């Protein structure tokens, strides 16, 4: 069962980015009060729209991470994508598709339009929401939906309060972050500029410190009743072909409930790994899996 309380913050490791300490200093008391009121209103508005959307859609999640550094192979590990996949999978909403796209409006728009046409929902997007020349996610999402980007007054006010007393102030680059697809709903950010949602698309900054609490809040609101999933690995001294039929039959029995994979070892021939993914509270799936493995061991004369 999902946690029912919204996270107020989440301290996670920040990969490849160092934050200037001055960017996150406390605001003046008056600014904090105004920002807190706006944040409460944002959380309620966003949670209400999410709950309504979740009752009307078939779950078919997709994950998009945005950045030239990703598609050009300049970053060794796409940690945001990995985290997003694991988080969704643990909630029982494993992604059906994951992809990376560069910092170009047309490319971002094309992949989102394809996903929308193919009935993917929800679509989670990370990265490209800053105020620099290569932050194109806002325009890409708007183009995919054939709506304009325009100044969002609520976002403008949040950013004005957050940045006006900081170094460089609320300059032109930071003001760009308030230009959002028309009709979108803001997603509150505990430490930075808001993300946004529109028509089943949920867009977040690429900084892990921001992405994690924002997406967790969204997913908890979308799928409050989904049971946590867990995994179980079993290693067998055999080859795929010797157990493939039994694994396939198991998969068919539990289609739509859990899933099973069979993976040969990269280290040595004649070793395979079975991986069961199933709802943590479903004892029947686990019992059937255990029985299947025991039958395999008896038939093949091997141990797990």
From TrEMBL:
Domain (MoaB/Mog) ranges: 62-226
Residue ranges of coiled coil: none
Taxonomy, superkingdom: Eukaryota
SUPFAM superfamilies given in the database record: Molybdenum cofactor biosynthesis proteins (SSF53218)
Membrane-spanning segments: none
SMART domains reported for this sequence: MoCF_biosynth (SM00852)
InterPro entries assigned to the protein according to its UniProt record, in alphabetical order: CinA, MoaB/Mog-like_dom_sf, MoaB/Mog_dom
Protein name: MoaB/Mog domain-containing protein
Organism: Sphaeroforma arctica JP610
